[in-house]
């Protein structure tokens, strides 16, 4: 994956690292090893930092790309 980040980086207590880049990739890495765990292409530049929140006992990560907001549920 070749992508350059202009967004922030978010890490969680569970050692997940989230970030995105100019080519539209949003991805999760193992914060300890750097191993790519998951990625998707959002179809537009990810220029803002991701955020995380909990609702009804589940954790979510949200990020914007172009004019859209994307929210992903994290595994329990």
Q: Can you give a write-up of this model?
A:
- The chain has 76 residues and is mostly beta strands.
- The chain has a single domain, classed as Thrombin, subunit H, CATH 2.40.10.480.
- It is built from no helices and 7 strands.
- The chain has strands at residues 10-11, 16-20, 25-30, 36-41, 51-55, 58-65, 68-73.
- The strands form 2 sheets. It has a 4-stranded antiparallel sheet with strand order 1-2-3-4, with no helix packed on it.
- It is globular.
- 13% of the residues are buried.
Question: Keyphrases for this structure?
Answer:
76 residues; mainly beta; Thrombin, subunit H; four-stranded antiparallel β-sheet; three-stranded antiparallel β-sheet; 7 strands; 50% strand
- Count of separate DSSP helical elements: 0
Structural class: mainly beta
> What helical percentage do the residues reach?
under 10%
Rg, nearest Å: 12 Å
Strand order of the largest sheet: 1-2-3-4
At CATH level 2, the architecture is: Beta Barrel
CATH overall fold name: Thrombin, subunit H
Secondary-structure element order, as H and E?
A: EEEEEEE
Number of strands: 7
For the sheet with most strands, the description reads: 4 strands, antiparallel
Question: Averaging pLDDT over every residue, what do you get?
Answer: 90
What is the element layout, followed by pairings?
Elements: E1 10-11, E2 16-20, E3 25-30, E4 36-41, E5 51-55, E6 58-65, E7 68-73
Antiparallel strand pairs: 1-2, 2-3, 3-4, 5-6, 6-7
Summarize this entry quickly.
By secondary structure, the chain is mainly beta. Helices cover 0% and strands 50% of the residues.
């Amino acid at each position: 994956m070749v992508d350059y980040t202009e967004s922030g980086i978010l890490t969680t207590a569970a050692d997940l690292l989230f970030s995105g880049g100019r080519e539209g990739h949003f991805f999760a890495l193992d914060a300890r090893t750097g191993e790519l765990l998951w990625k998707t292409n959002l179809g537009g530049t990810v220029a803002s930092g991701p955020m995380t929140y909990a609702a009804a006992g589940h954790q979510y990560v949200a990020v914007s790309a172009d004019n859209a907001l994307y929210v992903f549920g994290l595994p329990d």
